[in-house]
Amino acid sequence: MEHIAIIGNGISGVTLARHIRKLSDKKITIISAESDYFFSRTALMYVYMGHMKFEHTQPYENWFWKKNNIDLKKGYVNNIDTDNKTLHFAESDQMSYDKLVIATGSKPNKFGWPGEDLKGVQGLYSKQDLENLEIYAPNNKVCKRAVIVGGGLIGIELAEMLNSRNIPVTFLVRESSFWNSVLPEGESQMINRHIKNHHIDLRLSTNLKEIISGENGKVKSIIIEETGEEIPCDFVGLTAGVTPNISFLKESNIETNKGVLVNRFLETNIKDVYAIGDCAEQREAIGNRRPIEAVWYTGRMMGETLAQTICGNKLEYKPGHWFNSAKFLDIEYQTYGWVHGKKGKPDYEAHFHWKHEDDTKCMTIAYHRDTNEFLGINTFGIRMRHEVFDKWLTEKRDLDYVINHLEVANFDPEFYKRFENEIKASYNNTLQTN
Q1: How does pLDDT run across 53-90, given as a tens digit for each residue?
Q2: Is 281:259 a contact under the CB 8 Å cutoff?
Q3: Which of 336, 260, 344, 276 is nearest to 310 (CA)?
Q4: Could you read off the pLDDT of 411-433 as tens digits, one per residue?
Q5: Going by DSSP bridges, is the β-strand pair 219-224/208-213 parallel, antiparallel, or unpaired?
Q6: Paired residues of 242 in beta bridges
Q7: Where is each FAD/NAD(P)-binding domain found (predicted)?
Q8: How far apart (Å, rounded) are the C-alpha atoms in residues 145 and 170?
Q9: What CA–CA distances, in Å, run from 109 to 46, 70, 113?
Q10: Model pLDDT for residues 296-318, shown as the tens digit of each residue
Q11: Ordered domains of the chain (ranges, CATH)
C-alpha cells in the first residue's frame, strides 16, 4: 500500500490528509513536533482573550484520526534522504515513504537583534507561543509593559490580545504609517488613529535597536534605534513577518529559495516530493500573487488540489482571485482583487475612496484608469459577500456597475442601507468635480 508522509499538521497538511482519505485508502502519516492534534492557528488569540479554551480550537475530535485511519506521529524531522525515501528524526528513529509532502508552515522573522533570544521575547505563531504568553504576560502585574515590533496583521492581533488584559503596549512600526506597504493612504491613516484610540502607544517610523537583558536572562527593556530611548518592558512580541520553516532541508537534495520551490502542480525538483502552504514557493508567481503566500485559505486550497494529484487526477493549483480578511481591533477588513498601497501601485490603477464620518468605516475601489474596469475593493467596518466580488472580477465589470450594485454584494442589508446612498452620492460628486 502506498505510504504518503506529510510533515506538518497545519491547515495544509491536514486538508491534504482528509482529501486523500476521501479519495483513497492509501496509508497516511501526519508528522508534527508542535502539537498532538491539529488546531486552528488563527484562533490562538481568542484563547488568550478568554473567548474559548484551547480544545475549542481543534476542529476534530481526538478519535477522528484513528477512525479515518490517519496515523499521527509526534516527532521532529532532522533530515530527508530522498534517494532512499527515508525520513530521519531527531529522536533517532526513521520512517520510509512512497510520496512525501512538506507542509511545515512558517516561523516568525528574526533579524539578528541583540537579545532576540531572551526569555519573554517571542512571536505569535505556535501553541508554545501561546503557552509562553501566559508565563510572561499573564496580567499587568507580571507584565507592566509589552513592546511589539512590526506592524503587520499578527502585530495588531497581539496588541489586541495584550490590550484585553489591560497590559500597556508600545507598538514599534518601521513604516511611516501602519501597514502602508499594503493599504492605500486613507485606510492606513484611519487604522493609525484607531490604534491610538485604544490607548496603544503607536510609534511610527521607529526601529528596534536591541533588547536588553535583566536578571535570569529575561528581557527588561528595549532600545529604539532612531533616538536611543530605553523603554522598560517585561515582554517583547516579534511580529515583523514570517519566513518558511524549512531549515531542516539544508542537507537534502530538495531545491529551496526562501521556501521550497514548486511548480504549478506543487511538485518539487525531486520526484514524489511536494510542498504546500506557507513553506511552498512558486517558481513563477501566479498573476499578481506573491510566490509565497502565508494565508490560511491558500494553504487549504493547495491541500485540496494536491490530494487530487496524489490520487491520480493531476491538477494544477489555481487559487483564483486574491481575497483576504482580518481584524484591526474593532474594525473588520476584507479585500477582493487588487488594491495597492502607494508602494507597488501600477500606473494604470486609480482609486475611489469613501470614508464614513465616524472614522471606523471606509471603502476603496480600485479600477483601471483608462477602461474603468473594476480591479479590486477594500472594505473596513462593512461586510461583503465573497462570491459576488469574485463573480464581478471574473466578468470584468466596470466601476459604475460596482458602485450601482453594492447592495447586492453586501452581507448584511439592514446594517448597510445607511451607507449605500452616501457612497453613491460621494461617487457622483467625485465624477462631477473630475
Answers
A1: 999 999 999 999 999 999 999 999 999 999 999 999 99
A2: yes
A3: 276
A4: 876 655 678 889 989 999 887 66
A5: antiparallel
A6: 108
A7: 3-283
A8: 8
A9: 23, 32, 11
A10: 999 999 999 999 999 999 999 99
A11: 3-107+244-311 (3.50.50.60), 121-240 (3.50.50.60), 323-433 (3.50.50.60)
